[in-house]
Amino acid sequence: MGDLSIETFTFASTSSQNVSIPNIVFGCGHNNGGTFSNATSGIFGLGGGNVSIVNQMHNEIKGKFSYCLIPLELLFGSSNATSHINFGDNAVVSGPDVISTPVYKKETPTFYYLNLKGVSIGNKTLGFISSPSSHPEYDRGNIIIDSGTTLTYVPDEFYSNLESLLMLSINATRKDDPFRRLDLCYESNENGTIDVPKIVAHFTNADLELSTSNIFTKVVEGIVCLTIVPGGTNQISILGNLAQANFLIGYDLKANKLSFKPTDCTKH
Description:
Blueprint: E1 2-11, E2 19-29, H1 53-56, H2 58-61, E3 64-68, H3 72-76, E4 84-87, E5 99-102, E6 112-114, E7 116-121, E8 124-127, E9 143-145, E10 152-154, H4 156-169, E11 174-175, E12 185-187, E13 199-203, E14 206-210, H5 212-215, E15 216-220, E16 223-226, E17 228-230, E18 238-239, E19 247-252, E20 257-262
Parallel strand pairs: 9-18, 10-17
Antiparallel strand pairs: 1-2, 3-4, 3-19, 5-20, 6-9, 7-8, 7-13, 11-12, 12-16, 13-14, 15-16, 19-20
Keywords: Aspartyl protease, Glycoprotein, Hydrolase, Protease
Family: Belongs to the peptidase A1 family.
Domain Peptidase A1: 1-261
């Protein structure tokens, strides 16, 4: 239920001239699910489907866009920092510390899949198995990357192994999540964090080192919880936006490549 409309969208550009793109389809829904606050205008669709803004602007942006998401805690503080998105030539992610991995499309064109081979905690590595019937050598994409999902979801069996390894690796006092949503929580130190060994997500051709804040978040004062959770009945795997914070993430849909660059997104 809603209204669909067509309009010319105008974007600021690095060329100093604004860029106007005609005939962009957008809509206003009147029966919406999900959680929206009055501070939010709506959803900006970046998926691979025909109606996403990425595909509607395909000729102008040549399949390239990038975003840099600020960490969650800055959204609730007094910081004026905001996340940023770029399209076209200005979205190319480059530099000596950039890592790149293939991006795959499957039956549902909306989703972008990466291939996760395993996760290391300290000097121990867990091989990633995306479902009971899959094989580690299956390398055509096994986890969705999504800027619109908050948490990171993994299959139950992999989560259980990951949680066990984290519990062995973290020397801090266990706590319960007061909201009863997250399973693995700890009392934080005076800096509001906990000490966690180096955590690396091993994608095809790209080892992504995650910071503690990428996988643990403050739920109330003095308590942080793991933001990787079991996928449950769906058994779908999603790399959520908390895990993507403080990376400049560039999509090149013509080259089928996704790039990560560690970045202070408040300064990007």
